[in-house]
Amino acid sequence: xxxxxxxxxxxxxxxxxxxxxxxxxxxxxxxxxxxxxxxxxxxxxxxxxxxxxxxxxxxxxxxxxxxxxxxxxxxxxxxxxxxxxxxxxxxxxxxxxxxxxxxxxxxxxxxxxxxxxxxxxxxxxxxxxxxxxxxxxxxxxxxxxxxxxxxxxxxxxxxxxxxxxxxxxxxxxxxxxxxxxxxxxxxxxxxxxxxxxxxxxxxxxxxxxxxxxxxxxxxxxxxxxxxxxxxxxxxxxxxxxxxxxxxxxxxxxxxxxx
Length: 258
Prior knowledge:
Layout: H1 2-17, E1 21-24, H2 35-41, E2 47-49, H3 58-68, E3 73-78, H4 80-91, E4 96-102, H5 111-115, H6 117-125, H7 129-136, H8 148-162, H9 164-175, H10 181-185, E5 191-196, H11 204-213, E6 217-222, H12 229-232, H13 234-246
Parallel strand pairs: 1-2, 1-3, 3-4, 4-5, 5-6
């Protein structure tokens, strides 16, 4: 009995190590936006953080990432990273073992919201990147907690690390992104739809909508978090990701979604 249990644990650990987990960040962000998760999960899983700097269209970014990523992998995308994750799901569903979509949307920009990027792009291009950051991501879009200013300072530092050109390409890619509702309906892998309770960009109802579209999705709302729950409530976010990774590959479709 002890031997069988030990063998089961060994096989489970082997499976986890053979299922790389790829993180895709929000625009303006580097690996530090997943810093708490990388630190907590790295002893147990093979982790990769893939940058979103490979083009000015979501399709181009996804195509370049697929050329570099493992043959099979789990994928977790935050905000813009979620948009790229859905495009990867559209292009190569057979390569994904599971998907997590965090603080994101399956909807395309409207003409008005796409146009809203232009003043921000102009400000960033004019050399005022630090002033443009809170226009791309307003402090009010984070939870009103004790670490809001600290998180915003980190976002500004990450943006400066990426550089103006990369951020403008990211903004252009978001302006032109496609609607992915049909893609989500066809998703056949375990899915986590996660959002901060106080997200001022992608509210809970938008995530509930995405979770209803996906046959094998679980919706997780992180209390006390806004648009960047990975930093605002890192322990709760990490726990949700860990539970998602532990789900079996084959799940039973909930009766409400049949």
